[in-house]
Design a protein that fits this description.
CATH architecture of the domain at 111-222: Orthogonal Bundle
Strand content: 5-15%
Low-confidence stretches: none
Structural class: alpha+beta
CATH superfamily of the domain at 111-222: Hypothetical protein, domain 2
Shape: globular
Oligomer: single chain
Number of strands: 8
CATH topology of the domain at 111-222: Endonuclease III, domain 1
Amino acid sequence: MIIKKLHNAIEIEDFGSFDLGLSVDCGQAFRWTQNETGHWCAVVGNRYLEAEQSEGKLIFYTDENEFEGFWRNYFDLDTDYAAICEKLSADTHLKAATAACPGIHILKQEPWEALCSFIISQNNNIPRIKGIIDRLCENFGEKAEYGYSFPSAERLAVLEPEDLAPLRAGFRAKYIIDAARKVSNKEVDFERIKAEPIEFGREELQKIKGVGAKVAECTLLYGFYKTEAFPVDVWVRRIMEEMYPDGFPECADKVQGIAQQYLFHWRRTFF
DNA sequence: ACCCAGGGTAACT
DNA sequence: AGTTACCATGGG
């Protein structure tokens, strides 16, 4: 990876197969948008980033400290995805999926934002999920010059489900409040989920009303970077029924979640 | 009017 | 233990 400092940005070459647009817009994160110039923009935590990719170059409009201290890890730029995809290619369908949409990285999102986002995702579609999350941030996040932050669990914990009416989240409002309360009072312990094997996280997260197996797996994969987490939504279920009636291939051991992300995007985009 | 969406709960057999 | 209606909302 070659990193050059520009006057207002960091320019990167030789960053492997990473695809910025695919990674931020393949259904794992919901706050990235394209501005008039096609640059990808989002608020993550209390930071803001504008970024673009063109002609083999990746440009982050931020300084070196921010890139090295946060974004490099957020985009998982130091993991060798080419090697992972090569390993997955031992399976015919995974070979096709990884070849069809190369460059997807798992984004290392904030655990609370991932949990809350995937609670909202249940029995919902991606455009509407984005809308609800936008309204959640506008109503309860902190306003900065560049946009609204994602509201903390502590901020939402003091609210009642009816207070979330402006979100038009439907039956999910009460689940969001229950999650906020159990996370902020440590009844659901994020530090232990980070430290312990995935089985602990599975049980811990499902103590929350409205969190079942699928939302828990998404939270563990995108919020805790547990790459063996395996979320099965309606699209992945179709793939499992059509292509893997006898189970998921061994070559995906420990990275089932990454394999799942390629299959999800492949199935939605090309079938 | 009907069906579906990155599901989960509760109430049934 | 395995099915099924129902849950709010909006787009096709």
